[in-house]
Specification:
39% of the residues lie in helices and 20% in strands. It contains 16 helices and 19 strands. The active site is at residue 248.
């Protein structure tokens, strides 16, 4: 297990200071990890800047770059069980999620963007200027700072890393301090794949390291996934420096259950969409708008399904929901549940920390409130935990307005047997992705990102190629 930082191809302990990364299922220390700050960020950015222009990287043929990404994908696949176990131990998610979703998704993204490496083309265009040949080319942005979150550390790092490398950039990765271990292991595999020194650098640490990366004058682009509050600060810093930025931020996804919906299917899909990774998903379905005639039936079935979920350490076979990531986050989730009670929502199940054999970890029972109104805190603020709110509606015409009455716009879902009704509503909801009769899904070929306070730009697909390249115009006189 690597606990040092990777800078310019060397594993570096920095100043010698460390911080503990904890197992959220037990609260025990897994390892002491090197704590980087501004000095280490500067060294990593300088290394990335040198590598950006080196013959080994800048002169590398696109087909060779593609082979490196494919080799890295193969190595992740070969080490899938180890990576899944590391992710589960450090983050808490069940092995079924780390091994069945996160690791395969990382492999998929590397292979997808390896395919793009040889297909990044410019255009030629007829101009109104006589005797001129005009064309464009796409070039790397430069040194990219990749700041990744703690909920899916490995997977989301690859979402950023794969297109950044496919387009010829170099990177400095700053993983979340709560979950650094899988990012360090991925960096080790990148070395094994043959990616040149300095192209991929990883600096572990807290907010100081992230701020130094955002502010460094040689960083051309920041790609950040995390909270909206931090995203706003990054956007402000990047704006002052005229630095390119991509932000995938918070969400408060509405789930609309029409009167004609298959309630049992909607309950099952919403349990998956709302409680995956203990609700620590930015696209989690968390506020449910149910036709008033079906409200009680849906709420009762949702609560029954939530209360039946098996809590436990992610490494245990049969665990359906693991712990929250930290004691601090557990306290924050409990605070929101307290607000729901105080504001008059009806608690149907959950609402407390798990005890008994789970008392040493950060486990919170899946929680369902009914009788929630639009003005309640639990209906408006992102909780990022296993807390689901059921609201009722009488007039379908009010649904789009109520679903849009939020600062967020990352994802939404509509449940209805009437495909025309579902698609009309999907067109009116302001969200980056709208799902119809299904839990949230992701694919490397589908753009991902939010509207409003849920972010700027898109990840995945050709959109990610655009995000990590600049367009240069080349004019040639034919006279």
């Amino acid at each position: 297990m690597r606990t040092e930082m990777l800078i310019d191809g060397e594993w570096n302990a920095g100043s010698g200071q460390t911080f503990a990364t904890l197992n959220p299922a037990t609260g025990e220390t897994i390892a002491e990890v090197a704590q980087g700050g501004a000095v280490e960020i500067d060294a990593a950015v300088e290394a990335a800047s040198r590598a950006l222009h080196s013959p080994q990287w800048a002169g590398m043929l696109p087909a060779v770059r593609a082979k490196l990404l494919l080799r890295l994908a193969d190595l992740i696949e070969e080490n899938a069980a180890e990576l899944a176990e590391l992710e589960t131990t450090d983050q808490g998610q069940p092995l079924g999620i780390s091994g069945g979703v996160a690791v395969p998704n990382a492999v998929e993204h590397l292979r997808y963007f390896a395919g793009w490496a040889t297909k990044i083309t410019g255009i030629t265009a007829p101009l109104s200027v006589p005797d001129v040949d005009y064309r464009t080319r796409r070039e790397p942005v430069g040194v990219c700072g990749l700041i990744t979150p703690w909920n899916f550390p490995l997977m989301i790092m690859v979402w950023k890393l794969a297109p950044a490398l496919a387009t010829g950039n170099t990177v400095v990765v700053k993983p979340a301090e709560q979950t650094p271990l899988s990012s360090l292991r991925l960096a080790e595999l990148a070395q094994e794949a043959g990616i040149p020194d300095g192209v991929v650098n990883v600096v572990t640490g807290g907010p100081e390291a992230g701020q130094a990366l955002v502010r460094h004058p040689k960083v051309a682009k920041i790609s950040f996934t995390g909270s909206t509050s931090v995203g706003r600060e990054i956007a402000a810093e990047a704006g002052r420096a005229l630095k390119r930025v991509s932000l995938e931020l918070g969400g408060k996804a509405p789930s609309v259950i029409a009167a004609d919906a298959d309630i049992d299917s909607a309950v099952q899909g919403n349990i998956m969409g709302g409680l995956l990774n203990s609700g620590q998903v930015c696209a989690a379905y968390t506020r449910f708008y149910v036709d008033s005639a079906r409200h009680d039936e849906f709420a009762e079935k949702l609560a029954a399904a939530a209360s039946a979920m098996r809590l436990g350490p992610g490494a245990d076979e049969g665990t359906q929901m693991g712990p929250l990531v930290s004691a601090e986050h557990l306290a924050e989730v409990d605070r929101y549940v307290g607000a729901g009670r105080e504001e008059g929502a009806d608690l149907l199940t959950g609402g407390e920390r798990a005890g008994g054999d789970l008392a040493g970890g950060y486990f919170y029972r899946p929680t369902v409130f009914s009788g929630v109104t639009d003005d309640m805190t639990i209906a408006r603020e992102e909780i990022f935990g296993p807390v689901l709110s059921v609201l009722s509606y009488d007039d379908p015409e009010e649904l789009a307005e109520r679903a849009n009455d939020t600062e967020y716009g990352l994802a939404a879902v509509v449940w209805s047997r009437d495909i025309s009704t579902a698609n009309r509503l999907a067109r009116r909801i302001r969200a980056g992705s709208v799902y119809i009769n299904m839990p949230p899904m992701l694919d490397a070929a589908a753009p991902w990102g939010g509207m409003k306070a849920s972010g700027l730009g898109r990840e995945m697909s050709w959109a990610a190629i655009e995000a990590f390249t600049e367009v240069k115009s080349i004019w040639t006189s034919l006279a």
